[in-house]
Design a protein that fits this description.
2 domains, binds glutathione, alpha+beta, 4 strands, Glutathione S-transferase Yfyf (Class Pi), Chain A, domain 2, 204 residues, Glutaredoxin, single chain
């Protein structure tokens, strides 16, 4: 398996998940939009986005929730998604919300307001809207953890989506984490395999 990533991007959630699973995998730095290398990366993933996961059979899968679900299914012994249908639905519901709403609608508005409004004069309003969506997501996660270690009764793929959002909040000073989310982030960050994987993104 090979993960295409960009340092500090949402792909770090899948990178951390692969590190937690502990099976062999490779990583390759993708290219950002606007660089010369970007056209080559689009031959790998025509959407030009990360994360992308090249599977052992040579096929590529994209979209964070789908890659996370695939990995949970591939390694059922890690228990990263509940076996019962209701439990599985709730984990997928959370991961979808974190990626599609909190990241794509919230965080992206704060960091890339020009994607939502061409006029610079609208950017502050767009960023305010984004911050509200982002913070609402962090607050919802805070309530859901509610003294537990994880979002659900045991660690699941949803925790790895929350992990990258928490890291963005800390690293970029966007929004604020409550005590539960802070402890949740530290719980994952204190795992040596995860920390090493994320830190290696800078030097790869
Ligand atoms: N819907 C995609 C979103 C992925 C996405 O937006 N990735 C960003 C990084 S966080 C990206 O590839 N940005 C590079 C670019 O836009 O050039 C998913 O769930 O994987």
């Amino acid at each position: 398996m090979k993960l295409y990533f960009l340092p500090g991007a949402c792909s770090m959630g899948i990178h951390a998940l692969l590190a937690e699973i502990g099976q062999p995998f490779k990583i390759e730095k993708a290219a950002r939009f606007g660089t010369v290398e970007f056209e080559s990366y689009k031959l790998v993933n025509p959407k030009g986005k990360v994360p992308s996961l090249l599977r052992n059979d040579g096929s590529l899968i994209t979209e964070f929730p789908v890659i996370a679900f695939y990995l949970a299914r591939m390694y059922p012994e890690k228990g990263l998604i509940p076996k019962d249908a209701e439990g599985e639905i709730r984990v997928l519901e959370m991961i979808e919300y974190l990626v599609s709403t909190v990241h794509m609608q919230g965080y992206t508005r704060v960091r890339r307001p020009e994607k939502f409004a061409p006029s610079v004069s609208d950017h502050v309003v767009v960023q305010e809207q984004g911050l509200k969506i982002f913070q609402e997501g962090l607050d919802l996660a805070e309530k859901q953890i509610n003294g537990k270690e994880w979002l659900f009764d045991q660690m699941s793929i949803a925790d790895f989506a929350l992990f990258y959002l928490e890291r963005w909040s800390i690293a970029n000073g966007i929004g604020s984490l409550g005590r539960n989310c802070e402890a949740h982030y530290n719980r994952l960050w204190s795992k040596i395999e995860i920390r090493q994987a994320i830190e290696s993104e800078i030097t790869t």
